[in-house]
Design goal:
With 452 residues, the protein is an alpha/beta fold. It has helices at 17-27, 40-46, 58-65, 78-84, 110-122, 139-148, 170-175, 187-197, 211-242, 246-254, 275-288, 292-322, 345-355, 369-373, 390-394, 407-410, 414-418, 436-442; strands at 7-11, 32-37, 70-74, 87-90, 127-131, 156-160, 180-183, 206-209, 326-330, 359-363, 384-387, 399-402, 426-429, 445-448. The protein folds into two domains: 7-209, Rossmann fold; 276-448, Rossmann fold (3-Layer(aba) Sandwich). Helix content is 43%, strand content 14%. The structure holds nicotinamide-adenine-dinucleotide. Nicotinamide-adenine-dinucleotide binds next to strand 2 and helix 5.
């Protein structure tokens, strides 16, 4: 096997593949990086000025690397690139299965498996195949099996190199990762990949483990993060009932170095494409190995998240229906600084509001509201309007429901907005980011999550 990786191919030009490969190309000018995807429109967007992924700092990196040592090409042009690659990253989606064994919980590995078949068909080897997608533990067995059935005799080593970036801070996370994790069985392959990261990541932050530990560590890390959100959200409801303040409680708990301050912000709940599906995958694995106690524990983390969304939506609906039944939704993205609304809490909350007969006025800083509305499961377009700015969205609204912590919502001029709202307007601050005093003195009723 080659000791040095000089040619990389990444299959999957999504929220992980695109930014990760852009940073590798930026930090490793000696390595040529090719990103391929089935989705031709996505590849075209990566080759344009309107990138398909919004992340602070990403556009600048793509601008200086694209055409130098970074290129985006369609799957049909990918075979030659795979044949020459020293390493191929698999960075495709691993959603929850919707049918068959484990439907509703287990990860759907069909996209990963089709990548493995594509690599087996075109690689001339020796090739390092790297799981960048989040996989259930022992998924590498399946990949190895598919690769070894290839007809052209390429030789392969499989590594697990799960990605820990968070959307919204992807570039910072990639440039200064807390850790890079490489799991594998072949020391030469592990060190070849470590050498790529050593271009900019300190050696001490490059962790090596066995394959199965690496696969499981990614699921465990996301489960721990989701668990913290559910823990503080469970406390937020108790704060509201007892007139305690969840930010004060979080500050005190987080000052304990054993707990730490991060990920203790009460909210309408976690969203995004990963936490729920990775928790479900973990629950499925526990059940598969007949570990019912651990399965129930992680299910509880998901249950609190659903409960938190439901109770806040119910409060907003109840208030809106006292007036004209109009709710302005401020924020559709699952968090700030991203245009991603996959599994956004806003989806379930909007569905619940529509089901309770409320009309919605949607606004977000980066998400196209019409695009979002197409994903509202309810599909009842009646009673949904879209706005580019906050003021027109709030016009005539009985309740303003803040669902994303975009900075611009924290600095809204409440007195200026008050007169255009409905008769008895309330703000439901699902992120606890606004200046409550300013909003109350402007005339609004104010509910902030976790504030008594
Ligand atoms: N989004 C995140 O914040 C994040 C963070 C860490 C890990 N992950 C994991 O990374 C993986 C990818 O996530 P994402 O958010 O980038 O997904 P995504 O849906 O944004 O991108 C996946 C891309 O893969 C392409 N694709 C699917 N099958 C293909 C195939 N056979 N050949 C070529 N292209 C194919 C799709 O067209 C799509 O563009 C998932 O396993 C996810 O759990 C995601």
């Amino acid at each position: 096997m080659k000791q040095r990786i000089l040619k990389i191919v990444c299959i999957g030009a999504g929220y992980v593949g695109g930014p990760t490969m852009a940073v590798i190309a930026d930090r490793c000018p000696d390595i040529s990086v090719t990103v391929i995807d089935l989705n031709a429109a996505r590849i075209a967007a990566w080759n344009s000025d309107a990138l398909p992924v919004y992340e602070p700092g990403l556009a600048e990196i793509v601008r200086r690397t694209r055409g130098r040592n970074l290129r985006f090409i369609s799957q049909t042009e990918g075979a030659a690139a795979i044949a020459q690659a020293d390493a191929v990253f698999i960075s495709v989606n691993t959603p929850t299965k919707t049918q068959g064994e484990g439907a509703g919980k287990a990860s759907d590995l069909s996209y990963v498996e089709s990548c493995a078949r594509y690599i087996a068909e075109h690689a001339t080897g020796p090739t390092i195949v790297i799981e960048k997608s989040t996989m259930p533990v022992r998924a590498a067995d399946t990949i190895k099996r598919i690769l070894s059935s290839g007809k052209n005799g390429g030789s392969f080593h499989v590594l697990s190199n799960p990605e820990f970036l968070a959307e919204g801070t992807a570039i910072r996370d990639l440039e200064k990762p807390d850790r890079v994790l490489i799991g594998g069985e072949n020391p030469t392959a592990i060190e070849a990949l470590a050498a790529v990261y050593r271009h900019w990541v300190p050696e001490a932050a490059i962790l090596r483990t066995g394959l199965w530990s690496a696969e499981l560590s990614k699921l465990a890390a996301n489960a721990f993060l989701a668990q913290r959100v559910s823990s503080i959200n469970a406390i937020s409801a108790l704060c509201e009932a007892t007139e305690a303040d969840v930010d004060e409680v979080a500050g005190v708990c987080g000052a304990d170095t054993r707990i730490g301050p991060k990920f203790l912000k009460a909210s309408i709940g976690f969203g995004g494409s990963c936490f729920k599906k990775d928790l479900l995958s973990l629950i499925y694995l526990c059940e598969f190995y007949q570990l019912s106690g651990p399965a129930a524990y992680w299910q509880g983390v998901l249950d609190i998240n659903e409960w938190q969304k439901r109770r806040i939506a119910a409060m907003a609906a109840e208030h809106a229906k006292l007036g004209g039944g109009v709710v302005a939704i401020l924020g559709l993205a699952f968090k700030k600084n991203t245009n991603d609304f996959r599994e956004s809490p806003a989806i379930d909350i909007c569905n619940q509001l529509l089901a309770s007969g409320v009309r919605l006025r949607l606004q977000d800083e980066r998400v196209d509201a019409k695009d979002f509305a197409a994903h509202i499961v309810d599909q009842r377009k009646v009673g949904v309007e879209f706005f580019a700015d906050v003021a027109p969205a709030a016009d005539g609204a009985d309740a303003l429901l803040i669902l994303t912590e975009w900075d611009c919502y924290a600095t809204i001029d409440w007195p200026a907005l008050f007169s255009s709202c409905g008769k008895n307007p309330a703000i439901f601050d699902g992120r606890a980011i606004i200046d409550r005093r300013a909003a109350i003195s402007a005339g609004f009723k104010v509910y902030s999550v976790g504030k008594g």
